[in-house]
Design a protein that fits this description.
alpha/beta; UDP-n-acetylglucosamine1-carboxyvinyl-transferase, Chain; cell shape; binds uridine-diphosphate-N-acetylglucosamine; MurA_subfamily; four-stranded mixed beta sheet; binds phosphoenolpyruvate; 14 helices; 2 domains
């Protein structure tokens, strides 16, 4: 199993290019199942999760080709079976995103229940209840969601909680339903908007994406489209934090500043000078130690849970005491326990971590437990004195394209080796 070794202490300086967003590419690739003609998707990040989604489509008999620039061509008309098997779903929860499209387009879907993961229980009851409200027969049997339907019927769906993939699944299902579907309390994340724009390019009739009320007028068929995935705001945020924590000067290119308002606000509060332009963000710490910043995660446009661990890393070495509160997932603090091994002063009280910044961290072997926890340990390793070994980094390959190459480009002392 690979590990990352990071020598701490170098301020990161330079430019880095941001890849396409994992959390937009995955629903869009699942959404290709809805089309009756070939679909072409560009700016797809080269990530393990994307490979898994493509493998999943391939297992169903869908024709997928990828060129050397990660443009993915999908022809779903060759599909043989509407099944997402356990062995793939257990490696990637986002496999659940094929449920809505399969049911809407082919009238059947057998999708393994994702189950919990390192950050929480993560049920999918809202996805299932929404599909039932649209007329589907959905049974849970032998660890599988077995869904059957004739043509789905439009419905008014009031989501019990704001759920990103739940909104996406129901949005995709609604595109081919008979009549109008209204999704109330919809997720407003940019990735939901990107998916909606992709579906519209295929002929869907959708309004309100990006607000908490999405209206879909079902159409009988969706056709082909050519679409580019939006840039990854969480990857961009992670490299900006790398600049901030290391007291460096980092420019991210290909990023959307307007998708990072809450994150940039907190980086400014931490003492960073930030400038933004068309598809770039520049962060300069001018050699300063960051100030501690309080964080409270919540659905977009508030502070994203997928950036919580990275800001916890900044706070471990910041000037002052901070409170980091996680409101989305009940178990997203595993990185805090590993950071303590690097000398961080962290006390956990329920869903809040109280972090007292220390002047320095010291290297230790640490274990990555999930994707963003891994990123936060890399960030902590960038400033810990000595060489930090991060084990189980397969988590990071799910969501960060060529992370060691990109960090090296910024001057980091980082290498991958077999543990
Ligand atoms: C592939 C993808 O896009 N993943 C993102 C997506 O995950 P994902 O879509 O799985 O997360 P959700 O938005 O669904 O989760 C929000 C909360 O709702 C709860 N819930 C959700 C669905 C449901 O049927 N019942 C229920 O109770 C979850 O347990 C969680 O507490 O949004 C999360 C929240 O921004 C991000 O951290 C993930 O990176
Ligand atoms: C939690 C994440 O991903 P997933 O929903 O795929 O587990 C993430 O991207 O931080």
């Amino acid at each position: 199993m690979d590990k990352l070794q990071i020598g701490g202490g170098t301020p990161l300086v330079g430019e880095v290019r941001i890849s396409g967003a994992k959390n937009a590419a995955l629903p869009i690739l699942a959404g290709t199942l809805l089309a009756q003609d070939a679909v072409s998707v560009g700016n797809v990040p080269h990530l393990q999760d994307v490979t898994t989604m493509i493998e999943l489509l391939g297992r169903m008999g869908v024709s997928v080709t990828i060129d050397d620039r990660m443009r993915v061509e999908v022809d779903a008309t060759t599909i043989r079976e509407c099944v997402a098997p356990y062995e793939l779903v257990r490696t990637m929860r986002a496999s659940i995103l094929v449920l809505g499209p399969l049911l809407a387009r082919f009238g059947q879907a057998d999708v393994s229940l994702p189950g919990g993961c390192a950050i929480g229980a993560r049920p999918v009851n809202i996805h299932v209840d929404g599909l039932r409200a649209m007329g589907a027969d959905v049974q849970i049997e032998n660890g599988y969601i077995r869904a059957r339907a004739g043509r789905l019927k439009g419905a008014r769906l009031v989501l019990d909680m704001v759920t990103v993939t739940g909104t996406e699944n129901l949005l995709m299902a609604a595109t081919l339903a008979q009549g109008e579907t209204v999704i109330e309390n919809a997720a407003r994340e940019p990735e939901v908007v990107d998916l909606a724009e992709f579906l519209v390019a295929m002929g869907a009739r959708i309004s309100g994406a990006g607000t908490d009320r999405i209206v879909v007028e079902g159409v009988p068929r969706l056709g082909g489209a050519s679409y580019d995935v939006l840039p990854d705001r969480i990857e961009a945020g992670t490299y900006l934090v790398a600049g901030a924590i290391s007291r460096g000067h980092v420019r991210v290119r290909g990023a959307r500043p307007d998708h990072l308002d809450a994150v940039l606000l907190k980086l400014r509060e931490a003492g960073a000078h930030i400038e933004t332009g068309d598809r770039w963000i520049d962060l300069n710490m001018c050699g300063r130690r960051p100030d501690a910043v309080d964080i409270r995660t919540a659905p977009y446009p508030a502070f994203p849970t997928d950036m919580q661990a990275q800001f916890a890393a900044i706070n471990t070495v910041a000037q002052g005491v901070s409170a980091v509160t996680e409101t989305i997932f009940e178990n997203r603090f595993m990185h805090m326990l590993e950071m303590r091994r690097l000398g961080a002063d962290i006390r956990i009280e329920g869903s809040t971590a109280i972090i007292r910044g220390v002047p320095k961290l010291t290297a230790a072997p640490v274990m990555a437990t999930d994707l963003r926890a891994s990123a936060s340990l890399v960030l902590a390793g960038l400033v810990a004195e000595g060489t930090t070994d991060i084990h189980r980094i397969y988590h990071i390959d799910r969501g960060y394209e060529r992370i060691e190459e990109k960090l090296k480009q910024l001057g980091a002392d980082i290498r991958r080796s077999s543990a």
